Automatic annotation (TrEMBL):
Spans traversing the lipid bilayer: none
Subunit structure: Homodimer.
Pathway the protein contributes to: Carbohydrate biosynthesis; gluconeogenesis; Carbohydrate degradation; glycolysis; D-glyceraldehyde 3-phosphate from glycerone phosphate: step 1/1; Carbohydrate metabolism; erythritol degradation
UniProt-annotated location(s): Cytoplasm
Catalytic reaction(s) noted: D-glyceraldehyde 3-phosphate = dihydroxyacetone phosphate
GO cellular component: cytosol
Functional summary from the UniProt entry: Involved in the gluconeogenesis. Catalyzes stereospecifically the conversion of dihydroxyacetone phosphate (DHAP) to D-glyceraldehyde-3-phosphate (G3P).
Keyword flag Oxidoreductase: no
Enzyme nomenclature, EC number: 5.3.1.1
UniProt record similarity statement: Belongs to the triosephosphate isomerase family.
Name under which the protein is recorded: Triosephosphate isomerase
Residues at which substrate binds: 9-11, 172, 211, 232-233
Main location as per UniProt: cytoplasm
Length: 250
């Protein structure tokens, strides 16, 4: 049985004051949530959020990491630094990083390795663009993104990973994939891992991301291979995020 995970990706939003209010709202409403709940916050707020979520059920994560261990990489943040601040997860290869910051499949694989080496879990994002979906390439694109990481880490590395399927056309657009569309891709991801190691595949959590809102979340999370969500916009409003978390209660 896989424990559901609902992850909030705050992206480049927040302020010390707004974060405090959001976290107060979340912490006050977690009692009827049974899934694991993660907040992935901008780097400068790691210390603030880490202190605030200590001894609570909220888990802390980051949104990016350097593929390098340490050195002359101005502006970069190493995985060990994130671990020091209490991060348990790091989002890797979000489509915004791939598209806007030129992250290749290989860099994404190296980042996953860096996160694992520092004792944390990568949340590896994969997903197709609208043009790729229209061209019937969805499964091929997702399979390629996954196989580069599988080749680099070996399937054993996936024992501590989370995969997030995020169709790029659904991110921030209000267009959610239909539960059956998402389930089809999630099942293909699990099958690809199962072909290498059925045990790892059985326990691999695969999240759906892309305009997840309180309405419709329960139907998504009821799909056999959807193990939770990676939530952007709705993660910035405590009552919406909590409603999504409750929709993941099993
Ligand atoms: O990481 C989260 C995803 O990019 C989804 O964002 P969204 O819920 O605002 O569409």
């Amino acid at each position: 049985m896989r424990k559901k995970l609902v992850a909030g990706n705050w992206k480049m939003h927040g302020s010390i004051q707004a974060n405090a209010a959001l976290l107060d709202g979340l912490l006050a409403g977690l009692s009827d949530v049974s899934s694991e709940v993660l907040v992935c916050v901008p780097y400068p707020y790691l210390a603030q959020v880490s202190a605030k979520v200590q001894h609570s059920r909220l888990v802390l994560g980051a949104q990016n990491v350097s593929e390098h261990e340490a050195g002359a990489y101005t502006g970069e943040v190493a995985a060990a630094m994130l671990a020091e601040f209490g991060c348990a997860y790091v989002i890797v290869g979000h489509s915004e990083r791939r598209e806007l910051f030129g992250e290749t499949d290989r860099i994404v694989a190296m980042k996953c390795a860096a996160v694992l080496a520092a004792g944390m879990s990568p949340v590896l994002c994969v997903g197709e663009s609208l043009a790729e979906r229209d061209a019937g390439q969805t499964k091929a694109v997702v399979s390629r993104q996954l196989s580069v990481v599988l080749d680099y880490l070996g399937v054993a590395g996936f024992a501590k990973m989370v995969v997030a399927y995020e169709p790029v056309w659904a991110i921030g657009t209000g267009l959610t994939a239909m539960p059956s569309q998402a389930q089809e891709v999630h099942a293909a991801i699990r099958a690809q891992v199962a072909a290498l190691d059925p045990g790892v595949a059985e326990y691999l959590r695969i999240l759906y991301g892309g305009s997840v809102k309180p309405q419709g979340a329960a139907e998504l999370f009821a799909q056999a291979d959807i193990d939770g969500g990676l939530v952007g916009g709705a993660a910035l409003v405590a009552e919406d995020f909590l409603a999504i978390c409750r929709a993941a209660n099993s």
